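Supplementary Text 2. Reproducibility record for the structural model of the 97-residue chain.

All settings were left at their defaults, and a single model was retained for analysis rather than an ensemble. We include the record here because the model underlies the residue-level annotations in Supplementary Table 4.
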Amino acid sequence: MAAIKLDVEVTPRQVRIGQTISATATVSGAGEPAQHVEMRLSGTRHAMRMNPDGPGRFSYRLRVPSLVPPGTYTIDFRAFGRDGTSAAVPVTITVTR
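Retained model, structure tokens:
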């Protein structure tokens, strides 16, 4: 099994309630394109699948809902290869009013 490399870019890292966060994931080294990439807010069980943009590229746009209290959060990204391998990257964001 080949190791997967996952690179993630999230902008902005400091966001106000109601603003949109854009996330882009690039997966390489899996021998084949990744099967899928998920993102999950740490401490929760619900994962969102990122949208494929092409071989090895995924994206997602998320509007920060008004129910989210201000604070620092970690978004965990995980790529899953077709051969059962996976890679994870945590990204920290700050939500303000």
